[in-house]
Design goal:
The protein has 2 domains: about 220 residues, Alpha-Beta Plaits; about 35 residues, no CATH class. Strands 1, 2, 3, 4, 7, 8, 11, 12, 13 and 17 form a 10-stranded mixed β-sheet that branches. By secondary structure, it is mostly beta strands. It is built from 5 helices and 17 strands. β15 and β16 form a beta hairpin. The longest helix is centred in the first third of the chain and has 12 residues. About 15% of the residues lie in helices and about 40% in strands.
């Protein structure tokens, strides 16, 4: 098999929310997007209308590294609508009424909600693949997204992205395994099923890294898609165990991107293994 290629690109977002799925009344956000969010971005970018990432061989073969930083975090206060009949009756008293304090309001009920939002977000994403043509397809679509299904976003639909710096493709061998102590000022996902690192004798083990342990969503299928053709239906995910690092590394060996404009650790997750 020929040497793997790597596509590297950088994204800017004025604001973003990468929801932690088990938070509700106050919706917390990860500091960087989980793998499933980036996969959804790629499917949108490439125009995969009836996509099931878990069934697309080229997506399953991707190795992905996600790093990012943000300027500050704010909390938004807003109302969530509930269009059920019971919620409408509870708020207005009768189905025909829509007046509250002399004002006409939206049908249904509403609940106060808090959402944590990241501001001034910068993400660095590395994608490794055996098929250079597939990476070229992603690179060309990033620069000219004529096949996109929706406005390009990461997180919520309103969390639009701006491509920073031209994306670049290079050989995986350009990333060396070495010890580079430092505080990089980025958050990183460190996956348990790290690609390359597990085959390098010098590479530090997953257990050696510090960080909060998560079960992150990765590939997915959509429930009953063949019958409903609703790509926004309930998703059935596979998961990847990963640690969230704050970017401080000492006495650890890892893949390193030593390009003078980047100089960051790289932790490639093998998406094909959801165990």
């Amino acid at each position: 098999m020929s040497e793997l290629k790597v596509l590297r690109f950088k994204i800017y977002q004025p604001h973003a929310h990468y929801r932690i799925p088990f938070t509700y009344q106050r919706r917390h956000t990860y500091p960087i997007p989980p793998y499933s969010t980036v996969i959804g971005f790629l499917c949108n970018l490439l125009g995969y209308w009836d996509y099931m990432p878990a069934d697309i061989p080229e997506i399953k073969k991707l190795k992905m590294s996600v790093a990012g930083q943000f300027g500050c975090k704010t909390t938004e206060f807003l109302w969530f609508r509930n269009l059920s009949k019971d919620a409408h009756l509870k708020r207005f008293g009768t189905l025909e009424n829509r007046h509250i304090s002399g004002h006409i309001e939206h049908i249904g009920g509403q609940s106060p909600m808090m959402i944590d939002t990241l501001n001034d977000v910068r993400l660095v994403i590395h994608l490794a693949h055996e098929n250079e043509g597939f990476l070229e397809e992603i690179r060309d679509s990033l620069q000219n997204p004529v096949r996109r299904l929706e406005p390009l976003h990461l997180g919520r639909a309103e969390d639009w992205i701006v491509l920073m710096d031209p994306p670049e493709i290079f050989n995986l061998s350009k990333l060396s395994v070495r010890k580079e102590d430092g505080n990089y000022g980025y958050f990183f996902w460190i996956p348990q099923n790290m690609f390359v690192l597990n085959s390098e004798k010098r590479a530090s083990r997953f257990e050696d890294f510090d960080g909060l342990l998560y079960r992150l969503t990765s590939l997915w299928t959509v429930e009953n898609y063949a019958e409903t053709l609703n790509r926004h239906g309930r998703r059935i995910f596979t998961y990847i165990t990963a640690k969230l690092s704050d970017g401080l590394f000492t006495d650890k060996f890892f893949l390193f991107d030593d390009d003078k404009d980047w100089e960051l650790p790289v932790f490639l997750a093998d998406l094909g293994d959801g165990s």
